[in-house]
């Protein structure tokens, strides 16, 4: 299969906006991802009596809400994974590889990626929401906190980029 150019970013942005609008119209809620991971963790905790979390308030609330199958965020994240795979396959970009700079070996790259993801996940739980929920859903609702958060994210990204750029050259 020949490799095709990715979707135009402006067209992709409009499509994402329409998906967000559809999410608000159909479910009354915006988009986000961290809640899906919390639901899966609660499902695992509720499924295993060895965890000792049977009386945990979050696990009890999770079970009272219908559990894993009732959480639409889980299905949203599964749809994102399926859509990403379909897009990569249709665009001729389906391959298993580790993207890294010339001066970074595969092991440290995977370790740093896992550690960064873990820190982001912990931050999302402490903030009671993820970056996508803040940027997309909070921004669409004109939440001042969400707009300030995104300005801080971009400012930090621009500040740190020169320090990390040499690892990718």
Describe it for me?
The protein is mainly α and 169 residues long. It folds into two domains: 1-96, no CATH class; 100-169, no CATH class. The protein contains seven helices and no strands. The chain has helices spanning 9-27, 34-47, 57-64, 72-90, 106-127, 131-140, 144-165. The longest helix is centred in the C-terminal third of the chain and has 22 residues, at 106-127. It is globular and about 50 Å long. The mean pLDDT is 81.
Strand content: under 5%
Overall number of domains = 2
Molecular shape: globular
The averaged pLDDT comes out at 81
The total count of strands amounts to 0
Tally of separate helices: 7
The helix content is: 55-70%
Biggest sheet descriptor: none
Based on secondary structure, the structural category is mainly alpha
* Low-pLDDT residue spans: none
Radius of gyration: 19 Å
Amino- and carboxy-terminal Cα gap = 29 Å
Short description:
The protein is an all-alpha fold and 169 residues long. It has helices spanning 9-27, 34-47, 57-64, 72-90, 106-127, 131-140, 144-165. The two termini are 29 Å apart.
């Amino acid at each position: 299969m020949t490799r095709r150019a990715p979707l135009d970013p402006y067209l992709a942005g409009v499509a994402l906006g329409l998906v967000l609008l559809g999410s608000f119209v159909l479910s009354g809620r915006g988009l986000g991802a961290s809640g899906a991971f919390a639901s899966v963790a609660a499902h695992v905790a509720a499924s295993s009596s060895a965890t000792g979390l049977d009386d945990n308030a979050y696990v009890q609330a999770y079970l009272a809400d219908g559990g894993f199958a009732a959480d639409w965020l889980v299905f949203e994240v599964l749809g994102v994974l399926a859509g990403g795979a379909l897009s990569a396959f249709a665009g001729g970009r389906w391959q298993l590889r580790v993207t890294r700079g010339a001066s970074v070996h595969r092991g440290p790259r995977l370790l740093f990626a896992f550690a960064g993801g873990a820190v982001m996940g912990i931050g999302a739980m402490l903030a009671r929401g993820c970056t996508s929920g803040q940027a997309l859903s909070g921004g669409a609702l004109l939440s001042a906190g969400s707009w300030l958060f995104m300005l801080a994210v971009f400012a930090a990204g621009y500040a740190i980029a020169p320090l990390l750029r040499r690892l990718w050259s």
